[in-house]
Structure formats: C-alpha cells, structure tokens
Amino acid sequence: MIGSLLFTACVKELENEGVFESTLCCGVVVDQRTQQPVEDMRVMFTNGDHTNNVVRTSKDGTFEIGVTVDELGQGFFLRVEADSLFVGREVSLKNMIMGIERYDVGTIYVDGPEVPIVALRGVSQVLAASSHLDGEVTEGGKSTVVERGFVYGTMQYPSVSNSKVPVGSGEGSFSADLSNLQVNTTYYVRAYARNGVGVGYSDQMSFTTLDGLATVITGSVSGINPTSASSGGSVVADGGFAVSSRGVCWSTAMQPTISNNHTSDGSGLGDFVSGITNLEPGTTYYLRAYARNSSGVAYGEQVSFTTSSGLPEVLTNSVSNISANSAVCGGVVNSDGGFSIICRGVVFGTSPDPTVAGPHTSDGVGLGSFVSQLTGLSSHTTYYVRAYATNGVGTVYGEQKVFVTE
C-alpha cells in the first residue's frame, strides 16, 4: 500500500512537471478531393501485430485516442483504416510526443470516394423513332458501379430523374437502343453510372430523329392522250412506319397533293402503276407520286405533261372541175384526235380563212378521204376553200386553197 502511494505520488509529481505516462492524440480526417471532414472512420494505434484503442471520427471528422509511453516505445503507428469507399492512411508517431499530455497530429487526408467516370462514345443508327447509343465506364470511383446506362430527353442535360435506359453494372463498354421516340424531334443524351457515392454523367450529345416519312420516286408519264395518261412510282423506304397507301396526284397547279385528284395503288414498298383519267385535252398537268404512313404523306419529284389537243388532223385536196358556178374539192381526215369524227367537208367563201359559220359541205363522218361538191358559186370570182373535220373537242381546218371560177 505504501509502495502504491509512493508510485502515485511520483506520477503526480511528474505530471506537475509536465511529464505524463500517456498521451492523448487528436486530429481530423479530411477527404483529399472535397476537403470535407469524414465521419465514422476507424482510427487506431497499431504496430503491425497489435491494435490498440480503436475510435471513430465524429461528425466533424475529429478524433481523440490515447496511447501510453510504453506503447509508443514499441513503435506504434496511428492508422486511419480503409473502408469500401476510402483509401486508408498511416501516420508514424514521432518520439517527441512521448511524455506529453496531448498531441495534435493535425489533418490526415484520405482519398475519398468519387462518382464513376463515364463516357458517351457515340450516337448512331438514328431513325424516326429509335437510335443506338454506345458508352463506357472508364473508372468506377473506388466504389462498385451498381448501375449504368443512358439518360435522355428533349431538354438539355438529362439526368436519372428523366427517361433512362439502364444497361447492367460494373466498368467497361455498354450499349443500348432507344425506342418509341417522337419523329422529327431533337433529343439530348448522356451516359451515366452510379456507385455508392452517387451518379456520374458523361458529356452531352444531341441528335434529331427523322421525320418518319416514306421515300417515294415519281415514275415517268406515258400513254398520253387527250383525256388520260399512265404513270406510277416506287416506294423505296417506308421511314420506319408501314406505308398504308400510295399512288400519284395531279393538278393544273404546281406541287399537287392528295387533296387534288389522285389514285390509290396499293400499299407497302415497291413499284406501282397508276392510271390517270378524266383529263382535259390540250392541258398541262403537274404530277407527283405519293406514299402515306402514320407520320404523314411524302411526295416524289414533280413531273409535268401536256395532254394532246384531241382535235382531228385534216388535209385539203386540190380544187378541180372548176366552172362558172361549181367546183370539186375534198380532203383527208388522217386522225380523229381520240374522239370520233362527227362531221367533215369543206368550207368556202370569197374571204380568206372561211369557217363552218359560212358556206360549207357535209361529207360524212369518220376517218379517210372525202369528196366535196361546191355549188352556187359566182362566175369570175376568187374563192378560198379549206377542208374541215369536227369531233367532240372541236373543229380543225386544213390548208387553204384558192381558185377562180370561170
């Protein structure tokens, strides 16, 4: 009992002189990257074989841990233990702290957790309602990447709170296809990766979906006659949506649409033939092929054509058997213009360019030659004569001949 009292008295006397049997080490643990204190990190003394007096950092990152003079003499280290997010650190305690009451080791920096580093490698295969994306997690941020993928939207800098497509976990390359996009719309996209710390994003890229319209080529126009023609086209791409109808449209105004006259010639991809009817003779028309799908109506290149006049072709024969009061003429109807010849003959008079409004003969119908008898003429008079032919479109005249009666 007396020895114990003497030892206690000696210790107190040493303490009074500023020499202590144990030292209280203190300090603060800080994240090197963020410069923020780290809570709940394990701090301990260790000499490699033995660990003594483990404590944890407080909310402000500070800690206090005691060590005796004997323990310090054994070469102890102050260690901040690594965990799943942080890299640990070890501090060698100098002999100068032996015998002092309190020693502040200052700031111990640890490599703190980081969000993953992720890259958006490219956007490709952009269609009307879909696209293909490639990304890569290049660094996990000292924590397991539990989710990765792509985020996208019509506003810039999308995040995981917007539309996203998860694509597995871990580091490395990954890809995905976006679907059900809106046609003719600009989208912004970023790759993302999540670990225990948070979410990392790549740089942003943008792309614009196609309009979704089909691609159609207008065919040439053939078989042109006064009231009809033939055309067609070819649907070479459907724009990502099935072609429900196709054909040609036409009008006397340029850039016709399906609100004008049009045909319906099937559906789907491929070639089609269109019959164009109910045209007006001698009229210029504009025509385009069209193809309709759920995105709208697409048109091919515009072509133009002019229907034939529909009028007959007639030649005037020479005048013969000229007398004082009569003569013989006639003509040949070479073409009916697509419409039946309903009247033919010659017109004559004492003024140039006579018409059927004046004296004329009626010499049958249809194609071919005809002979016309001119009577009731005046003697010693100059007459002008032309053959004519009339169909449903109108009347045409042949070359004018001139003769003088006896």
Describe the model.
Helices cover 5% and strands 46% of the residues. The chain is mainly beta. The strands form eight sheets. Strands 10, 11, 13, 14 and 15 form a five-stranded antiparallel beta sheet that branches. It is rod-shaped. The N and C termini lie far apart (180 Å). The relative contact order is 0.09.
Strand content: over 45%
Helix content: under 10%
Question: Could you describe the largest sheet, including whether it forms a barrel?
Answer: 5 strands, antiparallel
Question: How many runs of DSSP E, i.e. beta strands?
Answer: 30
Unreliable residue stretches: 1-14
End-to-end separation in angstroms reads 180 Å
Total helical segments = 2
Structural class: mainly beta
Q: What assembly state would you assign to the polypeptide chains in this entry?
A: single chain
Principal-axis shape equals rod-shaped
> Rg from C-alpha positions?
51 Å
Average of the residue pLDDT scores? 89
Write a brief structural summary.
Helix content is 5%, strand content 46%.
How would the blueprint of this fold be written?
Blueprint: H1 2-16, E1 22-31, E2 42-46, E3 51-56, E4 62-68, H2 69-73, E5 77-80, E6 89-92, E7 102-110, E8 117-124, E9 131-139, E10 147-153, E11 163-166, E12 172-178, E13 186-194, E14 199-201, E15 205-208, E16 215-218, E17 229-237, E18 245-251, E19 261-262, E20 270-276, E21 284-293, E22 296-299, E23 303-306, E24 313-316, E25 327-335, E26 343-349, E27 368-374, E28 382-390, E29 395-397, E30 401-404
Parallel strand pairs: 1-7
Antiparallel strand pairs: 1-4, 2-3, 2-5, 5-6, 8-9, 9-12, 10-11, 10-13, 13-14, 13-15, 16-17, 17-20, 18-19, 18-21, 21-22, 21-23, 24-25, 25-27, 26-28, 28-29, 28-30
